[in-house]
Structure prediction request, 199 residues.
Amino acid sequence: MTTKSMEVFNSTITKEEINALPVESFSGRIIVIQTEADADKAVAYLFRYPLVGFDTETRPSFKKGQYNKVALMQISTEDTCFLFRLNYMGIPASLADFLCNTQTKKIGLSLRDDFNALRKRMNIVPANFVDLQHCVKSFGIEELGLQKIYAILFGKKISKSQRLTNWDADVLTESQKKYAALDAWACLQIYKLLSKKGI
Prediction:
């Protein structure tokens, strides 16, 4: 199975090749969560799903030695993405329980960085997470970034224009919301495709 899969996918892709691809977008619902009460409702909804996509965003720091706490956590189903604004509410107990619960499988990328950032807000031990960086290697894909992995698998470009914007802003822009939701949703799509191929 692995050998067959390695024949299907390119191992790498260039920026020029990515720029020539059509742009991907998330067309589902995007729900911004800023209170513990809303977080409780969102988590209850997410617990109904066996599989979700996961990502976080942190306000970039342009000064050496200065670090910002993770501001946003995105958790996506096939058609709905919740944007948990951790800079407003920290990590509510219900969300912490979801992250540490083995009931739902959470799919992300470069999870060590995410977990380290989350521990600066709360000392949690996340459970039942899958890091796509480990999955793609068995398919011969050498790229580790979401944009390149997605382009190799789906032939579409994920725009990174919002990555270095202010995730601590009072109000997130529509572009920020769509960017954040797409990243979590894309992780879910990658895992589902690779699952069909035999991971």
Summary: The chain has nine helices and six strands. The two ends are 9 Å apart (CA to CA). The chain has one domain: 2-197.
